[in-house]
Amino acid sequence: MPHTIHIKAFGMVAETIGSDSLEMENPGSSEALKQQLFKQFPGLKSMKFSLALDKKMIQSDTDISQGKEIALLPPFSGG
Amino acid sequence: MEKERKPKNIFVQGAISPEKIAHSIAAHQSKTDIGGHSIFLGQIRADEKPEGKVIAIDYTAYEEMALEKAFEIREAIFEKYPLTCMHIYHSLGEVKVGEICLFVFTSSKHRKAAMQACDELVERIKAELPIWGKEILDTDNHVWKVNV
After folding, report:
1. B6 within domain boundaries
2. Strand pairing category for A70-73 and A4-9
């Protein structure tokens, strides 16, 4: 059953997509989500960023289940 | 009895004032088992970029994740070094050149634990906390800060 996912965006990723949050139909996995984002925002293709699910960085393709908090994180530059 | 530690807010709106730092040092005078403190202060540098000169950094963060991660790092450092105290403060929003944006403060019985823990904390904060610095330039442009 399709459902909507809520995505938070930060730093230069937020700048590129023009918003710090967006909603889309759940593409099912983190890799599918990336492909969907690249289609919607071609500027992201050349950008380095990671995904976090429920505030944990994901290292490989991961299923996105309902209610997960998804975030797009460019390289950190605190300090 | 071991004191239970809970996630603390590390974020400060704007620059970290020298008064806050002095006050934090003074607050440790009652802890007489401390023999050494180590302090790291990060300051905004007026870098010259091809696009212009840095006049400020505007910090944003994924705050909930940063606080969870900071807590995890804090626990790991407490586990690794015999520390009495540890404090971490990071700015959010705009901090001008010359102002302080990061304050890391460790205390222990003897200096080495405080110094090593402070060093490791700073490295981990910069590498692992989801915080981003937007460098504001004197040309009305900006560039995204890159940590080296």
Report:
1. no
2. parallel
- Express each pLDDT in A9-43 by its tens digit: 999 999 999 999 999 999 999 999 999 999 999 99
- We report the CATH number of the domain holding residue B80 as 3.90.1170.40
Angstrom distance (rounded) from CA B72 to CA B127? 14
- Residue A35: what residue type? Q
Instruction: State the total domains in chain B.
Output: 1
Tell whether B63 lies on the interface with A, counting CB pairs under 8 A.
no
Q: List chain B residues with CB under 8 Å of A75.
A: 146-147
Interface pTM (ipTM) of the complex? 0.94
The rounded distance, in Å, linking the Cα atoms of B27 and B48 is 38
Q: Is B24 exposed, middle or buried (0-12, 13-18, 19+ CB in 10 A)?
A: middle
The residues in A 8-67 lying below 8 A from B, measured between CB atoms, are 8, 10-12, 52, 55
